[in-house]
Amino acid sequence: MNNALLIISHGSRRSASNEEVLSLTTSLREAAASSVAIVDCAFLEITRPTVQEKIDQMANSGVTSIQVFPHFLAAGAHVTFDIPREIETARQKHPGITFHILPHLGSLEGLPTLIFKTIQTTS
Amino acid sequence: MNNALLIISHGSRRSASNEEVLSLTTSLREAAASSVAIVDCAFLEITRPTVQEKIDQMANSGVTSIQVFPHFLAAGAHVTFDIPREIETARQKHPGITFHILPHLGSLEGLPTLIFKTIQTTS
C-alpha cells in the first residue's frame, strides 16, 4: 500500500476542537488500517501541521496517491477555493502523486441516515 | 406522534451554506417520517428562524417532546454554552415540552465508519 488519506480541517483556537479532529483521525486510521497506508490530518489556519507540511511528509514516506477529505460542514470558500488551491500547489511540487478531493463531510450521502440512527438510539 | 427534531446550525452569511442545512433537514425529514412528527432547523446567528422562533412554532403545533441536534463539528462555545442556554430558555417558556440535546454532529459514533465507506466507494 502506498496510498494516504489526508483529513483537512479548518483549525481552531480551541485546542479541544483540534483534538476532536485528531481523535477522528485516529478512529479513521483504525477503520482504514487494512486499505490505507497513512491516515493523517492537517489544518488550513491557526494550528499545524499545515496542508503542505503534511503532504511533504507523506511524499517523503513514498506515498503515490492521496485522498483528501475536507472536514467541513458546508461548501464555503475553504472547501471551494482554499483546499483545491492547496492541492494544486501540492500537485506541482509532487507530480508523482495522484490527488483526489473527496466530498466534504456535510455532503456525505449517508449523513442523514447516520443522524437518524443516532436519534433513534438516544430517544 | 407529537415529537419533533430540531437541527440547530450556526447560520452563515453564505446562503448556499444555509441551504445545505435546509437540504439536510429535508433528507432527515424523509428518513424520519415514520417516527418523528416534525423535523425542522433553526440558526444561532446571522439568519433565521431563530431557535426560539422555531421552538415556539413547534409548541403551537402541539409537540410535547423535542430532540435537539447540534449541527456542529466540534464542541465549541456554541455547543457547550449557547445551545444549552437556548434550550433552558425554551424549557422555561414551554414547561409541557421535554427537551433532549443529542450529541453534536462531529461526535457521532458512526462518523469514522461513514467517512471510511465514502473513501472506499470513491477511490
Characteristics of this structure?
homodimer, 123 residues, alpha/beta, Rossmann fold, 4-stranded parallel sheet, 19% strand, globular
Question: Could you please describe the fold and organization of this structure?
Answer:
Two copies of one chain form a homodimer. Chain A is 46% helix and 19% strand. With 123 residues, chain A is an alpha/beta fold. The first copy, chain A, has one domain (3-122): 3-Layer(aba) Sandwich (Rossmann fold), CATH 3.40.50. The first copy, chain A, has a four-stranded parallel beta sheet, with helices on both faces. In chain A, α3 links the parallel β3 (65-70) and β4. In chain A, α2 (51-60) packs parallel to α3. The longest helix of chain A has 17 residues, at 15-31. Chain A starts with a strand and ends with a helix. At the A-B interface, β1, α1 and α4 of A face β1, α1 and α4 of B.
Describe, in short, the structure shown.
Chains A, B: Keywords: Lyase, Metal-binding. Chains A, B: One of its GO terms (molecular function) is metal ion binding. Two copies of one chain form a homodimer. Chain A is about 45% helix and about 20% strand.
Question: How are the secondary structure elements laid out?
Answer:
The structure is a homodimer of 123-residue chains.
Chain A: E1 3-9, H1 15-31, E2 38-43, H2 51-60, E3 65-70, H3 77-93, E4 98-101, H4 111-122
Parallel strand pairs in A: 1-2, 1-3, 3-4
